[in-house]
Design brief:
alpha/beta, Aspartate Aminotransferase, domain 1, Aspartate Aminotransferase, domain 2, 8-stranded mixed sheet, 4-stranded antiparallel sheet, globular, binds pyridoxal-5'-phosphate
Length: about 400
């Protein structure tokens, strides 16, 4: 019997609902490249592809660790010096947490997976933002749990409505996911809103996952960690990583920090059991964590200086194209564009994005890949490339719109 007919080689059902649009769409771009065309990738948030560099002292610390022979496993929750440095930094920023409540993971991605795997039985519900970062939908689908979406409102700077969130809570709801600064919208939540989200978690005894992997990449305003509002009776797991704040996404170093872990000893123990079984996060890179927690202030300033110019150009040029508009993001390096599909011959955001790829070799991700309605015409732009590359992209987008309107 050929393999393709064998019941043994049918992928497990859970993978059918496992999507990650940011990378899935790349296969279309590769087809363009096979035809000898050069694609400008504005789909993935990898700063290294666009010339950003990590702070030199992080590289030195990791290389030194390798040379000094730190090539074995580390303790499963992370090296002591690294968890201490993370806890010190968190405390300075108002997040109450001790080193024993930190688990270092292979990126923030593994932290999200670990928390959900430890918490969720099939059918349990997780409140997730829509649009949202697709990792959460994928993990929840894998666990046969249920993602219950709450809406981020484009008319209200993509903020959620706390009343709507509360109305979606059922006896099966276990986790509330908050992403701040947000991917895909680039928006930042004000303290009043965060206070309301914490109050909901308190009233309904939910665990909060607050994903703050972009917390240093904030422009005019100040990022407020959700856990700084936890008091002593709400369990908040803050997810963070070196990937974006220090431009080392390939190092795969992230962590989760549990505030008020004393309220959930069994769950905390379950986190540790899962961490034990997967051994540890990359060891040598953990030697750079202390250096990361006290980088030169001018490093972050220079990154923000470059990103600010790219953001300004993006917002100005996109909003100047007839039929295109976008928000003015306050953090990260994403903006949500919107194509007015009513004036275009495309039936969905994905068709718009693919046509643009075929004709202009520009790759955005369609908003429905993050959960928006395909008819609304949203698309996410990563504004990491330099100003001259972005200028060309937006000029080409303008020509494309002119041609089809
Ligand atoms: C909101 C959000 N969370 C988590 C991640 C994954 O981060 P890491 O590289 O630390 O796994 C990303 C990556 O783009 C992200 O945008």
């Amino acid at each position: 019997m050929p393999y393709s007919n064998s019941p043994v080689f049918i992928p497990a059902q859970r993978v059918q609902n496992y999507h990650y649009a940011i990378r899935n769409i790349v296969s279309n771009a590769r087809l363009q490249e096979e035809q000898g065309k050069k694609v400008t990738y504005l789909n993935i948030g990898d700063p290294i592809l666009y010339g950003f560099q990590p702070p030199e002292e992080l590289i030195e610390a990791k290389v030194l660790a390798l040379r000094q022979g730190h090539n074995g496993y580390s303790p499963s929750c992370g090296k002591k010096d690294a968890t201490e440095a993370i806890a010190d930094d968190a405390n300075t920023r108002g997040i109450p947490v001790s080193p024993e409540n930190i688990i270092i993971t292979s990126g923030a991605s593994e932290a999200a997976d670990l928390i959900c795997t430890a918490m969720l039985n099939p059918g349990d519900e997780v409140l997730c933002p829509s649009p949202g970062y697709p990792l959460y939908s994928a993990i929840i689908a894998k666990l046969n749990a249920r993602e219950v979406q709450y809406r981020l409102d484009p008319e209200n700077t993509w903020h959620p409505d706390p009343e709507e969130i509360e109305s979606r809570i059922t006896p099966r709801t276990k986790i509330l996911v908050v992403i701040n600064p947000n991917n895909p919208t680039g928006e930042l939540y004000p303290p009043e809103l965060l206070r309301k989200l914490v109050a909901i978690a308190r009233r309904h005894r939910l665990l909060v996952i607050t994903d703050e992997v972009y917390h240093k990449l904030v422009y005019e305003e100040k990022h407020v960690p959700l856990a700084s509002m936890a008091g002593d009776d709400v369990v908040i797991t803050t997810i963070d990583s070196l990937s974006k704040n220090y431009m080392v996404p390939g190092w795969r170093i992230g962590w989760l920090a549990i505030t008020n872990s004393h309220l959930i000893p069994d769950v905390h123990f379950a986190f540790i059991k899962l961490a034990d079984a997967r051994l540890c996060a990359p060891t040598a890179a953990q030697y750079a964590i202390r250096a990361a927690m006290k980088p030169r202030k001018d490093y972050i300033e220079s990154v923000l200086h470059r990103l600010s110019a790219q953001r300004a150009l993006t917002v100005e040029m996109l909003n100047a194209i007839p039929g295109i508009s976008c928000n003015h993001p306050k953090g990260a390096f994403y903006v949500m564009g919107k194509a007015d599909l009513a004036m275009l011959p495309f039936n969905s955001d994905e068709e718009f994005v693919l046509k643009l790829l075929h004709e202009k070799q520009i790759l955005f991700v369609h908003g429905s890949g993050f959960g928006t309605d395909p008819l609304q015409g949203f698309f996410r732009v990563v504004f990491l490339p330099d100003v001259s590359t972005l200028e060309k992209v937006y000029r080409d987008l303008g020509d494309f719109m002119h041609q089809y309107r």
